[in-house]
Write a structure and sequence with these properties.
Number of helices: 5
CATH topology: OB fold (Dihydrolipoamide Acetyltransferase, E2P)
Order of helices and strands: HEHEEHHEEH
Strand order of the largest sheet: 1-2-3-5-4
Strand content: 15-25%
Shape: globular
Largest sheet: 5 strands, mixed, barrel
CATH class: Mainly Beta
Structural class: alpha+beta
Number of domains: 1
Length: 156
């Protein structure tokens, strides 16, 4: 009887995977909304993290939901510009359609709408940030972290 019970439990647990029986389906698309925030700064201000945004790294944008939880974005073609356009996006409200990965608190963005901001403005702001990061990485010394801070002062 026990082997049959174990087999039944295994079958039930397989169905609890994202996508259910259709393993090619992947996780379901969700619609969520919240405030775009710097993940590192949020952790520093609320939990005392030793985040050093703007000095050794950049301010990476994520999403704060109404319950206070913080979610990061998958850094892919869709998410990259959102993550790095922090000067433009921090503090803005956003509505997102995407795939949620609760174990990692990550969102893979399918589409996003940010209050008062266009896709072109986001793209331009992220491109500017990418150039600044590139300069900092090129100036990096061996065995030292890249110092991003001076590049945020420039206009290029």
């Amino acid at each position: 009887m026990k082997p049959l019970l174990y087999l039944l439990l295994l079958i039930i647990s397989l169905n609890t995977w994202s996508g259910g029986w259709d393993l090619d389906k992947g996780p379901a698309i969700s619609n969520i909304q919240g405030e775009l925030v710097c993940i590192g700064c949020s952790l520093k201000s609320s939990l005392g993290s030793n985040s050093q945004c703007g000095i050794y790294t950049t301010h990476n944008i994520g999403l704060r939901l109404g319950d206070g939880s913080l979610w990061q974005f998958v850094n892919n073609q869709t998410g990259h510009d959102i993550i790095f356009a922090h000067n433009l996006l921090e503090g803005k409200k956003a509505r997102i359609t995407g795939f949620l990965y609760p174990i990692a608190h990550m969102i893979e963005i399918v589409s996003i709408t940010v209050d008062g901001v266009t896709e072109q403005q986001i793209s331009d702001a992220a491109f500017k940030e990418d150039k600044q990061i590139g300069k900092a990485l090129m100036a990096r010394k061996r065995n030292q972290p890249p110092v991003i801070y001076p590049y945020h002062l420039s206009d290029e």
